[in-house]
Amino acid sequence: MSAEVHSAAPAKRALDEDPDHDAVAAERHAAMKRQANEEEKQMVEASASKVKHVDIHPNDEELRADTSPLPKSTSTLQFSPGLHLAPMVRIGSLPTRLLSLRYGADLVWSPEIVDRAIFGCDRTVDEKSGLVAFSREGKHIFTTHPVERQRVIFQLGSASPQWAYQAISFVTANDDVAGVDLNCGCPKPFSTIGGMGAGLLSTPDLLCDVLRAMRRAAPAHVSVSCKIRLLPTKEATQALVRQIIRTGTIDALTVHCRTKDMRPRQPALPHRLQEVIDVVQEETAGELPLILNGDAWDAPEARRLMKQTGVQAVMMARGPEGNASSFRSDGGVLSVASVVAPQWVRLALSLDNQPGNTKYCLNSMAFKATSSVSPNAKPLQPPPGLPRDTKQKMVEIRQGLAKSKTVEDLARALGVDPDEQKKIPIDEVLREVREAIERSSSSKEGNDSGTEMSEKPAA
Ligand SMILES: Cc1cc2nc3c(=O)[nH]c(=O)nc-3n(C[C@H](O)[C@H](O)[C@H](O)COP(=O)(O)O)c2cc1C
């Protein structure tokens, strides 16, 4: 598995900008990131080595030889207008997705999961919580819950039509996800070495074969989409987008407005989206939903980017990584320390989120007293009924999180009683997520953009 952005992660930036920041904390954070990368790499290699000699059908040759018409999508997912949660390795685990939906995300992408890592997992459903877990050797590779089923897109890492076919057949067999997406943008070496991620940008024929395999594997009502980066020139980007659209496989296209060689700290290039818009116009009369990604840190900035570019759908990554309430449409971003992180850990406790992932995600959040993760953000709203967070509180929470060994320790560091939380029935735990989804569904039925939707509850 892969992760595109590490150096500019909000938690790290928050530390950099915080006068209390000490070199030890920054080093601890960097070590966590290194360890996470290493674990992901090992997981992919281990999964791949277990299955690489299996003789599977249809294989690449058979898939390429199949000239029967591709099944047509009947997906009714609304990609545009919309404000969506971007795929993020590790960060986009179930609690992040559910909290994003609660705060107003329209669709949520899973972390990228490599074809051979998901294929051959055991799929189990927990009777009490309803949690659906795809696991291998006791380790969750992907978890989801029926509450997000109409809104979750599973993102695949693949550079092999046959493995993509197997992985997508497997993950869609029980109707657990609404859509599947191909990652064509990750520039991390362990993704591109296998030809996956941004590697696919230089092998467009293979990229299109993988999309065709995904379309053949997924049931018709499951959408197929892909996420690309810009290529160095307008001509190259346009040729790629044209070729992808002409496969007739995709229900939506996301463009991360950076090139493969650009660093996350370099400003994105939203003005270059016009070259993609032109091709979408020519090829589909503007019908294909186009999603802009890059440097939208919160809902107001997403709206500004929509106005600037004319597209009506935006996907955000680092904003919600730091603070899932970045999706709130006009009420301002809420305190991580007092509101968002406690909500996150409550979901983690009730939905068996793995301790390593829980600690990692909490440590990546923007524990800041006065502003959100956006460089232009306004001051945080004080927690409802509580005084503004103090610096002292931030320091204590960070120290508590650093010392924690279990999800229960992490909960206590955030003022949540783990035993009490586990007694709460799952319907009650998920009530506000469900209500937020219902509100956004009814505003869509009323032909209203989910992005401009009315304010979500604060806490
Ligand atoms: C922690 C992290 C993990 C990411 N993992 C993925 C991934 O699994 N798949 C993917 O297509 N992009 C991944 N990305 C890239 C984001 O989806 C997004 O394209 C990029 O961060 C730019 O959006 P932003 O400016 O809103 O952060 C990741 C980014 C971050 C910060």
From TrEMBL:
- Basic and acidic residues: which segments have biased composition? 13-43
- Co-factor requirement: FMN
Please list where the region (Disordered) is annotated. Answer: 1-50, 435-459
Q: What do the Gene Ontology cellular component annotations say?
A: cytoplasm
Gene Ontology molecular function, alphabetical: flavin adenine dinucleotide binding; tRNA dihydrouridine synthase activity
Question: Some GO term, biological process aspect, for this entry: which one?
Answer: mRNA processing
Source domain of life: Eukaryota
**InterPro entries (alphabetical):** Aldolase_TIM (IPR013785), DUS-like_FMN-bd (IPR035587), tRNA-DUS-like (IPR052582), tRNA_hU_synthase_CS (IPR018517)
Keyword Protease recorded: no
Q: Does the keyword Oxidoreductase apply?
A: yes
Q: Which UniProt keywords apply?
A: Flavoprotein, FMN, mRNA processing, Oxidoreductase, tRNA processing
User: Catalysed reaction(s)?
Assistant: a 5,6-dihydrouridine in mRNA + NADP(+) = a uridine in mRNA + NADPH + H(+); a 5,6-dihydrouridine in mRNA + NAD(+) = a uridine in mRNA + NADH + H(+)
Ranges for domain DUS-like FMN-binding come to 85-327
| Chain segments annotated as coiled-coil in the UniProt record | none
Record-linked PANTHER family: TRNA-DIHYDROURIDINE(20) SYNTHASE [NAD(P)+]-LIKE (PTHR45936:SF1)
Which protein is depicted? FMN-linked oxidoreductase
